[in-house]
């Protein structure tokens, strides 16, 4: 019988009878190494014990280049936050670790400062900096006072044209819109496009006290919640926007017990452009800088610089994006890639096209089988194969000039980031990987150091096959078992 036919039959048997003994007999007869058969047998056995979910695994030794294991490795999976690896690696490769987002105050080319009056417009050019804060803007306005500017003869022009205003790509869950982790990504990002809300029960059993941060944001809370006597300290509160994307008005409903302490929530703005207008109006008033109007517009060519604020370097942003799984950074970086690569407005489309253009030839990934909707992985329309992830990791480890930076930016098992409380003990610090999780979805993608110091690139993608089911503890147990086996093996 032809040897290739024997191998095909053996692989079929391996899927039907995942026992170490059957693998041992097959691999011994075909002269393959014992450690290879043990890895194959054990991983198939581990996976076979987890029922009811669609699993994909791909593992390659970067020390030898050998593909060690594949299981549904060319099937498409919703990757959740592991998609951030595509965004981060493309950004490091194209923009470099020292890249910074820049927020600028500019004026017309011929404008002058005469007796405290700026004779042109003041253009405030936002760039989608995910780290820009209210304090940064205050410092920039203070620098205008240092230049003796007390009045702007023209308008305050908010320039948000570098990045588009689309805040919600296809495939995201609409209920996430209220949460800070899904804050809108536009050119105008101030304090992460979020605000904090504190709700404190009223002992007189009236409406609870509501305190919001940054009162000049134009945020309005319609407080319909009540304090009522309950057994124990309990609450059930619901905060919803009154009209999505039209204003920053919210309705708070539900109840809480007077036994509760103050509750704090991080809430996403629904209209960052409106909030930016209100913020700037408040700051200009506070700094006693007079002007004609605040309008939205575009900075003219050859505009003169008056002040500039730089974000932290990309290396810092990528580290926080991966360690903390920061969605705002990931989506901001994606849109910035689109702007810089194509010299066009940054958007979901230009961003994902830029990632593909940057990585396709370098990684040998077939992007016809990769669907990338956003940069963070929040969309359920994203689709990636386990093999595509391993090819990406292989490129990052062997060819990316900042490979060490990427490696140390990944969560470390048992030590930090989203793996701080996972995979400790015998495999402490042996797994450096990005996690991903959504309802019915879990993933773990990264690098493992084995007992004999080989470096493996691996991807484990899990999508539950039962609609509505969400067994996160089971998914993570499977991921942990695979990683523990690999980290404690000698290949």
Q: Which sequence of strands runs across the widest sheet?
A: 2-1-20-19-18
Q: Report, as a whole number of angstroms, the end-to-end distance.
A: 30 Å
How many domains in all? 2
Q: What's the CATH first level of the largest domain?
A: Alpha Beta
Helix content: 25-40%
Largest sheet: 5 strands, antiparallel
State the secondary-structure class. Answer: alpha/beta
The total of beta strands comes to: 20
Per DSSP, the total helix count is: 12
Q: Tell me the CATH topology of the largest domain.
A: Beta-lactamase
The gross shape turns out to be globular
What percentage of amino acids are in beta strands?
Answer: 15-25%
- Uncertain segments of ≥5 residues (pLDDT<50)? 1-34
Radius of gyration equals: 27 Å
Q: What's the CATH H-level homologous superfamily of the largest domain?
A: DD-peptidase/beta-lactamase superfamily
Average predicted local confidence, pLDDT: 89
Q: Under the CATH scheme, which architecture of the largest domain would be assigned?
A: 3-Layer(aba) Sandwich
What report would you give on this structure?
The chain has helices at 3-16, 20-29, 34-48, 84-94, 134-146, 272-286, 314-323, 327-342, 348-363, 386-398, 403-409, 472-487, and strands at residues 53-61, 67-71, 102-107, 113-114, 117-118, 122-125, 151-152, 156-159, 194-200, 209-212, 220-223, 226-227, 235-241, 249-256, 263-268, 294-296, 304-310, 431-438, 441-449, 455-464. With 491 residues, the chain is α/β, with parallel strands linked by helices. The protein folds into two domains: 50-97 and 316-487, DD-peptidase/beta-lactamase superfamily (Beta-lactamase), CATH 3.40.710; 101-311, D-Ala-D-Ala carboxypeptidase C, peptidase S13 (D-tyrosyl-trna(Tyr) Deacylase, Chain: A). Strands 2-1-20-19-18 form a five-stranded antiparallel beta sheet, with helices on both faces. The chain has a five-stranded mixed beta sheet with strand order 16-8-6-3-17, covered by helices on one side. Strands 11, 12, 13 and 14 form a four-stranded mixed beta sheet that branches. Helix 3 (34-48) runs antiparallel to helix 12 (472-487), helix 4 (84-94) packs antiparallel against helix 7 and helix 7 crosses helix 8 (327-342). The chain is globular and about 80 Å long. Mean pLDDT is 89; it is low at 1-34.
